[in-house]
Amino acid sequence: MATNSPNTPQGQERIPPWRDLRVLGVFAQIAFIALTVVVGMWFFGNIQDNISTLGEAQFICRDGSSSLRCAFDFMSSQAQFDIAETTLVDYTATDSYWAALRAGLLNTLKVVILGVILTTIVGTLAGIARLSGNWLVSNVARAYVDLFRNTPLVLQLVFIYFSVMLALPAIREAFQVPLLPVYLSQRGLNYASPATLISFPTWFAFLVLALLQAQILWALLGRYEDNTGYQVNRLGWAITAFFSVAVMGWFIASNDVNQSILTPAALRVQATDDFQRVVLSRLNVSRLEDIQPAIERGRITQDDVDAAAVSICVLRDSPSEVNLTAQLKSLDVPYTVQRFRLRSQVTAAYEEGRCEVYAAPTAVLISERNLLENPAANNLTAVYETPMRISFPTIEGFNFVGGARLSAEFTALLIGLVLNTGASVAEIVRAGIQSVGRGQSEAARALGLNESQRLRLVVLPQALRVIIPPQTSQYLNLAKNSSLALAIAYPDFWNVANTTINQSGRAIQIMLLVMGSYLILSLFISALLNWYNKRIALVER
To answer: What is the pLDDT of residue 395?
Structure first.
């Protein structure tokens, strides 16, 4: 006669271990851990075998010995290759591999940050357009989404670069956007950009103060409206408060102490206005306004004007040039500029008489003046400085000077990534908007809200909880797809890393750095959007 276990209920048999789901679950976990350990051991064993095959030369220390702890010592050596793209930090071929990879990483971050911003805008607009009641708008958006979602990204990048960017006019025939200082050519996009001077940090502090004051005023006026029931123009008062402090800070920060020019004493220049007298005396005219009529009458030639122009020596991309030339332009004084890469070259050119004006920060000119053979024969003249000037691109010779530039490679990569990722984001936005019940839109219309207010205040805030999770994946795809820049020779992080591998022959170390950097970038984007997703999540009771 069978007896039941004390722990087994009457009428219920014990489940055999091979059929017990709890026991099977434990064994499955143990098996998975064991398999993971075996795969990990094989993986690291394979790495050790490959390291042994590569030899000790991969891990040479500075003292000549070989050790794994010296795996990255070679990164301090000179890179010995240039990076064609204008980097966010100074870089030359004599810098280390660390500096080269840093420049490439910053180029990648520049593409990713701008790409995320523009993708959000393009994708949102295209997603809304997909649901438009206008037949043309809806079908154009549909065609855009279908085209860019169903063709390979690398094909799009190659087409945009070779068939669009390189098909643009040459530098001397660059296309200018009407009424804007923006030029398109085979070398990319040149546009006006702000140039910050030494006094900018002071003005920036006033901008921060102005922003805080505007926010405080906005909150106080909102509390006043709640307490009294009277409506006030909060936006108008906040904007007025902001610009009042910002303008006041602009004039306080502006000065004639930080910037100066060095000129020969024989030129007798005591202020920038004196350059008018210098040019007029050389051309033998009474007013600068008379120069053009004199050229038209044939009394003087354009060569005479060029010979009489004020010649300036500056360090390349120096804000001092922008500050001085902006004032000379306002005075209609003709000038020419010679730019040098090194400060010593500027000083030598001025001392040799190749230019008559040396523009730089006052502290620099004081020290450089003492290096001249006859410091007393040169006058140091203060130049008025504002916190910021606008640098405009102009064609000189066979290239643009001034302003900022986006290279053809960067522009093609950015456009390709934005259009490709924006097409997927558009579908996500469309689905998110359609997930919001129709009753919400009907209620918004019943309240008298127009279509823009309905989307901005009612539909999109509710759709974000559906949009953000899948959109995070698209941002991650954009960051990783930026490595396809290799196809169009844009020097991003992976392109520079690939060149470093070819130069140094150290593939393992560079690959580890590349994988770790992309992993950190992806985790950061994911963490940031997950945090934002939690903030906008609907709290249900």
So the answer is: 84
